[in-house]
Amino acid sequence: MADVARLAGVSSQTVSRVSNGFPGVTEDTRRQVLAAMRELGYRPNSAARALKRGEFRTLGVITFSLSTMGNIRTLEAIATSAAQHGYAVTLLPVAVPTQDEVNGAFSRLGELAVDAVIVIMEIHLLDAATVSLPPGVQVVVADSDAGDRYTVVDTDQAGGARDAVRHLLDLGHDTVWHLAGPEGSFAAQRRANAWRDTLTAAGRVPPPLVRGDWSAESGYRAGLRLADEPDCTAVFAANDQMALGLLRALHERGLRVPGDISVIGFDDIPESASFLPPLTTIHQDFAEVGRLCVEGVLSKMRQDGEGHGTTLVPTRLVRRESTGVPGRDRRGEESRPPFLPDA
Amino acid sequence: MADVARLAGVSSQTVSRVSNGFPGVTEDTRRQVLAAMRELGYRPNSAARALKRGEFRTLGVITFSLSTMGNIRTLEAIATSAAQHGYAVTLLPVAVPTQDEVNGAFSRLGELAVDAVIVIMEIHLLDAATVSLPPGVQVVVADSDAGDRYTVVDTDQAGGARDAVRHLLDLGHDTVWHLAGPEGSFAAQRRANAWRDTLTAAGRVPPPLVRGDWSAESGYRAGLRLADEPDCTAVFAANDQMALGLLRALHERGLRVPGDISVIGFDDIPESASFLPPLTTIHQDFAEVGRLCVEGVLSKMRQDGEGHGTTLVPTRLVRRESTGVPGRDRRGEESRPPFLPDA
DNA sequence: CCAGTGGATGTTTACGTAAACATTGCCTAG
DNA sequence: CTAGGCAATGTTTACGTAAACATCCACTGG
């Protein structure tokens, strides 16, 4: 900086003013300084800057190895949104979702150049961890509940699940089976609860819950079981991957979708439009979740925020070809090639 | 730090020594300092640290919005591997893959707290950009060629494509059609070139190349065309998503896979094991790519490295049920339900 | 008994920046 | 014509750390 000042014939403070876009600098002087900066290839040293300003302009994101598409989309939106606010994003990967690993990530965080943290994680792993949070570091949590203890931004899981169930009921199905996510997942739990509540509210009897683990493989196994349930005409899968496996199993058993069984997913991953048949599903707006995480954490930083609360991002039903009116009893009536989209 | 020193009854320098694990501190003193650190909740200030040391212990990763699964896996591996070396990872998202955006990312980079950069990007967007790289910032590129100008780590695209084609030829197919990725992509180009070369080397005539854009939707459209090619008994899709769309199109046209047409993909995304039928594909080791990127950039930093070169990460053929011996002429011969896995 | 040695610890300083305060010089109002 | 004010710019200082150097002290060997 001193070199630039010398070359431009000004003081280093003036260089600082120019590089930060502060007022009170003649247009002439500004130009000269900029020229000198270019000539010397000057780059402000961000370490010194952070030291002086007391902030890093950086957000940390803690997440399990980018396993699910939802986390990835959210992360992407966080990065983009942070960049728009002049913030960088530092990744804090947690290899395996154990309490130890999470604690480790949080303690590393203390020495990390980060002003605030966004956690994409189930809440129950967070409790013991946050005690070691450096004071003044704000936290926003995505993919969780517990809005009373943290600021939470999440997809409206319950609303989406409700829409999925209602869609199938509206089509005329007596009831809807549910292929749930793993027990440990709050998202899975909330979707399952909303599924049960919606059925009950509509005066239907919820069938036994079928448990998967988010993977297509687990959906396949569940599908083999469901294929043997003669009463099953409609399945709400807790995510699109499991729906994919489900479709494969039903297909192998010679069941038509949606002719014999309607299937609806959750997430709306890009591939789901190309499943066999294209999957009706609940679209999640991960970009919005990420954006709100950044807004939330920045606003908390500004007002040293105390207020916690949950922001829900609405979902949207995307109707494709895997859902239709009930008709399993018609099985075998027609001889059209199976799985041809009804449309 | 001064407070800790006072509480522990030592000098700040001794605190520094303890916090950096330097030798020359009595076990007694160390314990006292550590106790004081805990009591005061001391965290070393990473800005001051970076300022003093002249390095940030941080790697920047520039990539287009985490669009493809490959990039994500690579990023994940980079983050993990960097953490093991005591480095953090900062994300530099590029919204749209235009030269302007890339230049912007690189110029922001100059002010960013980053010691080195890993670029996950097609090379041709890099050329004009790197001129603005701060001196001393090393670069490693994934997903590209141009090993003569940069250090490059990439999947062995050509080797994988060759294995895919050979697998189908070995099964007895006369030739192999190719559903390629978009023209702008070097990965797509190299896979297509290797496909053509392998066929030529085997004395076969390469059929006309079919172009997609990586999406399942484009694979579907291509599939509708290929279904009308009576000579087509084997297709090598340049990625699994396009293979997915391809499978759907063939299915709609009543063609069995692999009975009538064999399909092989590239990438081995997790879902491909649950396609209809499960997809034979070329597995990419993104974790290894990411790891090598980190190793490469760190070693370049240590030796102020000049040497460029390309490191290729081998692929692996994953045989599932979408490939088999040729048999399109047998169409209609049997009445078994289509798409049941042959095994 | 003393010089010499080496380990443990303290003191000084500089890293690059920006806030706070100081100075300069020009313009305007009285 | 001059005091006062304000815009432009310069000077000083501190941010928290760690390298370099300085000091202290206990112990060893002659």
UniProtKB/TrEMBL annotation, chains A, B:
Residues 303-343 are annotated as: Disordered. Residues 318-336 have a biased composition (Basic and acidic residues). InterPro entries: HTH_LacI, LacI/GalR-like_sensor, Lambda_DNA-bd_dom_sf, Peripla_BP_I. The keyword Amino-acid biosynthesis does not apply. Keywords: DNA-binding, Transcription, Transcription regulation. GO terms for molecular function: DNA-binding transcription factor activity; transcription cis-regulatory region binding. SMART domains: HTH_LACI. Residues 1-53 form the HTH lacI-type domain. PANTHER family: LACI-RELATED TRANSCRIPTIONAL REPRESSOR (PTHR30146), LACTOSE OPERON REPRESSOR (PTHR30146:SF153). This is LacI family transcriptional regulator.
